[in-house]
């Protein structure tokens, strides 16, 4: 797998000057007939967590031709490598860039000349699905959309169960923000986290990438490495967990999409994080289940997610004509 990195800025960023880090994944001699994947990660995560999924997916072929031309994974501005690039800009911002802001950056990226003539497929996990929905409005640039365990719930059911939803948010927030988040080194972080939830349920490849890319170095101003900490700050994580607005709005956009647009859902098979009302609100091109996984399917069973995606991408590439809104 060939990996290259880019960073970019975009017009009307809030705050001005925000940067986004992205990585391109491809195989030698990739062909222009294949699909170009645009990948967005979930809260607390980072772009490299898609790599175990891509390990086998980039090898998939249809009639001797690779299904995937290339894949691009993008960091949320407050996560992963992007968080380090934007640290000074975001240090005094307790909310951090919104999901909508991330979607705006992704849209700028996919509408650039880089992707002229590409067949784009959007694939999002958790809040990454919401960001990609925002990037698709208006005039969707994607040929298909795949939502992997998106944090969606229909507005009607949300308001009918507001107390239960708020209680769930508070529990999730407490669990996430009470975790230890500083270590003397990545080696210490690895040893401390590997046997704790949720990391002990993760695929080893995903966990190793989290330690390598999901943490950032904090340097003593007087010289020397002081410690490592989560790239996404607790304040920015809290905003992502507690603010349900982007999920409700992005789900509304999902409902507004043409019912014939290729829209696919991938769930874990454990107790469902996404309410059944999401499935009942509109028709989908396919609904897949990843075995031995829950909401963190991309992290817990990347090979299972890859197998689901391979079927979806095969159906997409077999289509006689691209569908775009």
Automatic annotation (TrEMBL):
- Limits of the AB hydrolase-1 domain: 37-306
InterPro entries in the record: AB_hydrolase_1, AB_hydrolase_fold
Q: Which domain of life is it from?
A: Eukaryota
Query: How is this protein named in the record?
Result: AB hydrolase-1 domain-containing protein
Species of origin reads: Ceriporiopsis subvermispora (strain B) (White-rot fungus)
Give the source lineage, highest ranks first. Eukaryota, Fungi, Dikarya, Basidiomycota, Agaricomycotina
């Amino acid at each position: 797998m060939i990996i290259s990195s880019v960073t970019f800025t975009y017009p009307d960023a809030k705050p001005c000057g925000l940067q986004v880090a992205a990585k391109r994944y491809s195989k030698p001699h990739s062909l222009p007939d294949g699909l170009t994947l645009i990948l967005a990660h979930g809260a607390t995560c980072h772009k490299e967590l898609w790599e175990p999924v891509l390990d086998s997916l980039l090898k998939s072929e249809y009639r001797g031709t690779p299904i995937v031309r290339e894949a691009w994974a993008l960091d949320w501005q407050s996560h992963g490598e992007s968080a380090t690039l934007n640290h000074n800009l975001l240090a005094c911002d307790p909310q951090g860039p919104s999901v909508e802001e991330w979607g705006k950056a992704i849209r700028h990226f996919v509408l650039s000349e880089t992707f002229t003539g590409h067949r784009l497929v959007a694939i999002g996990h958790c809040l990454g699905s919401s960001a990609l929905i925002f990037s698709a409005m208006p005039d969707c640039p994607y040929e298909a959309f795949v939502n992997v365990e998106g944090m969606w719930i229909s507005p009607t059911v949300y308001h009918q169960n507001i107390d239960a939803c708020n209680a769930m948010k508070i529990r999730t927030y407490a669990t996430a923000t009470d975790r230890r988040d500083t270590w003397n080194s990545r080696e210490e972080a690895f040893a401390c986290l590997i046997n704790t939830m949720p990391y002990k349920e993760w695929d080893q490849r995903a966990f190793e990438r989290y330690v390598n890319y999901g943490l950032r170095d904090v340097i003593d101003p007087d010289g020397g490495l002081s410690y490592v900490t989560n790239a996404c700050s607790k304040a920015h994580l809290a905003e992502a967990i507690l603010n349900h607005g982007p999920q409700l709005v992005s789900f509304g956009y999902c409902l507004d999409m043409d019912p014939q647009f290729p829209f696919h859902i991938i769930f874990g098979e454990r107790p469902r994080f996404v309410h059944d009302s999401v499935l009942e609100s509109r028709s989908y091109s396919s609904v897949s289940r990843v075995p031995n996984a829950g909401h963190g399917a991309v992290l817990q069973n990347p090979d299972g997610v890859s197998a689901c995606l391979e079927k979806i991408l095969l159906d997409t590439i077999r289509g006689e004509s691209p569908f775009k809104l």
